[in-house]
Amino acid sequence: MLKRLLHSMRREHRARLSADTVTALNDAGISAWHRGDLAAAERELRAAIAANPAFAPAYGNLGMVIWEQRRLDEGLATLRQAVALDPDHIGARINLANALAIGNVHQEAIGHYREVLRRRHGHPLATANLLKPLLDVCDWDGADAIVSELVERWRTASGGEILDSMTPFVSLLVDIPQAMRLDVARRYGKRVVEQVADLPRPARATGRGAGRLRIGYASADFHDHATAHLAAGLFERHDRERFEVYAYSFGIDDGSDYRKRLVAAFEHFRDVRTLAHDEIAQRIAADGVDILVDLKGYTGEGRPQVLALRPAPVQVNYLGYPGAMAAPFVDFILADGILIPPGEERWYGEEVVRLPESYQPNDDRQPIAEHVPARGELGLPDSAFVFVSFNEQCKIERAIFDCWMRILGAVPSSVLWLLGGHGETALRRAAAARGVDPSRIVFAPKRPKPAHLARHRAADLFLDTHTCNAHTTASDALWAGLPLLAWPGEGFAGRVSSSLLRAIGLPELVAPDLESYERTAVALAREPERLGALRARLADNRLRGPLFDTERFTRNLEAAYVAVWERHRAAQADSARSQSAMAC
Fold first, then answer.
1. DSSP tag of 486
2. Tens digits of residue pLDDT in 436-481
3. For 216, which of 261, 289, 462, 536 could close a Cys bridge (C-beta 3.0–4.6 Å)?
4. What φ, ψ does residue 215 adopt, rounded to 5°?
């Protein structure tokens, strides 16, 4: 009897030791993942699975770590295995849903988020993360219900957990108060600071003299990506006698011509994608970068944790994220007077620096394919008036779509040309519900950039979205010679196309309200001479105005860098004088 008892106690002890080991390995993997050290995270999590092949949490974490290394099929398979092992493990199911949503497998992602909510009613992370895939498939009823819940909880201060789960980028896509967007960004920035609290702070290079100002650009998009399409010419034209320019690339090398061009554009190109957050920060500090310009912000593949470690004395939010980061580790946001009008600074945690003509760089060497396809090749009627909106479908709101359908109703010989996506079925159904033949909506597949630019010339008028505008997409239309009609939203993300139109000399295409937007679209379709005059002015201004003058823009941006650096040095001097006076 005693022997059996001792044997049972030893077995239980071994089981506890084994469980403790698995938990410790899993926790170590999570810690490495949060540090950005994906290779170490994978080792620890695989060791946890080796110790207990039925431990679902380790599979759920490992799947995301593999996914973030862009081994996408393997990552999804591992995440599905986690859910199969323990269907009630909420973290594993949410990780699977997140990966599916990022990978554009929206309906399956939505199904998993809803399964979490069925098992755990009101689960904050599932509720918040469900919003983006609903927008992607144009499920306005579902998205509006979540937005209404989020706004109500924010107003009543009863939704801390849900608001902490909301990503700032998604807050830019939906119509919520500016103060709420700022609150979401601040909460997110606070979490980023907490994530790196235990990581070592980088040691800045000593002996920096009064040489060239060192500018570092940090991004995951130094390849064939919208940010690169805009900024390649800027990077190439920096004044090398006054500025030493670094790139810190934590994204993929896609082998594209854009990647090759960008590597050649920078004086120093650092591929840091395999490094942990603190290792990247140490590299930036060791390089003695004076101004670190974050081109990602709170978007996918962003590394705000690097900025939170303070590798540079001045840190700037610019271009890739059209809103406030509102974090103590970001000093300035670059904008212009349209994006952030005077008096609107209160909605931004950063100090606002306004560029004189437009905040957006553009590449005046961006090629447009010579061949313009006939309308028939593009699925468009030869004789129709073609309204176009090549925005991602997640930007299409119910109100703007209703307006577009009224415009089609008022212009019978017209079609609406949209970029294809996962909301096509919902949009066709919505058109029919509004009395418009769904065949009057034509969906365009994605094309290589030069061919995409060329096909704009088969359209007549670009209709922009509202809460979140076309950004690079708007510049594409204007560069291709296509007039664009804007109705600006309330925040930065909703004012970009208005900024671009003023910079190109077409301010009358900025409508003050929805009624004016609708009325102008119909009028331009009915008055070909008026539209032709706008198109002619756009063609005339395209290479003469500031919007596509890359050299002029670069000098303006460099002047802004010098100004923020001088402001920083003045603040340092004031602080030193104050400390000296206190010491006396």
1. B
2. 999 999 999 999 999 999 999 999 999 999 999 999 999 999 999 9
3. 289
4. -110, 125
d(CA 432, CA 160): 40
SS3 484: strand
Contacts 24+ apart (CB under 8 A), 116-121: 116/90, 119/88, 119/90, 120/90
Q: How confident is the model at residue 10 (pLDDT cuts 50, 70, 90)?
A: very low
Angle made by CA atoms 176, 179, 183, in degrees to the nearest 5: 100
Q: Which backbone phi and psi does 351 adopt, to 5 degrees?
A: -75, 135
143 within 8 A of 174, measured Cβ to Cβ: yes
Asked if residues 388 and 456 have their Cβ atoms less than 8 Å apart, the reply is yes
Query: Which superfamily is assigned to 2-121 in CATH?
Result: Tetratricopeptide repeat domain (1.25.40.10)
Helix (H, G, I), strand (E, B) or coil at 525: helix
- The answer to whether residue 208 scores a pLDDT higher than 70 is no
Of 507, 562, 537, 566, the closest CA to residue 358 belongs to 507
Q: What percent of the chain has pLDDT over 90?
A: 90
Render pLDDT for 246-292 as a digit per residue (tens, 0 to 9): 999 999 999 999 999 999 999 999 999 999 999 999 999 999 999 99
3-state secondary structure 218-234: EECCCCCCHHHHHHHHH
Q: Give the tens place of pLDDT for each residue, 143-168.
A: 999 999 999 999 998 778 888 999 99
Entry pTM: 0.92
Distances in whole angstroms, Cα of residue 456 to Cα of each of 370, 497, 575: 12, 16, 54
Give the residue extent of every domain in the chain. 2-121, 213-354, 375-542
Domains 213-354 and 375-542 share a fold: yes
Name, in order, each residue with C-beta under 8 angstroms of 69's C-beta and a sequence gap of 6 or more.
38, 42, 75
Tokens 């650092």 map to which residue?
A: 270
Q: How many CB atoms lie within 10 A of CB 441?
A: 21
- Burial of residue 102, with CB atoms counted within 10 A of its CB: 0-12 exposed, 13-18 middle, 19 or more buried: middle
- Strand pairing of 414-419 and 385-389? parallel
* 3-state class (DSSP) for residue 130: helix
Quick check: helix, strand or coil at residue 63?
helix
Contact status, residue 380 vs residue 442, Cβ threshold 8 Å? yes
Q: Which has the closest alpha carbon to 114: 99, 131, 136, 102?
A: 131
DSSP string, 148-213: HHHHHHHHTT--HHHHHHS-HHHHTTS---HHHHHHHHHHHHHHHHHHTTTSPPPPPPS---S-SE
The CATH number of the structural domain formed by 213-354 is 3.40.50.11380
C-alpha 410, offset from chain centre: 35
The domain over range 375-542 is classified in CATH as 3.40.50.2000: yes
Q: Which amino acid is at 99?
A: A
Query: Cα separation of 434 and 484, whole Å?
Result: 24
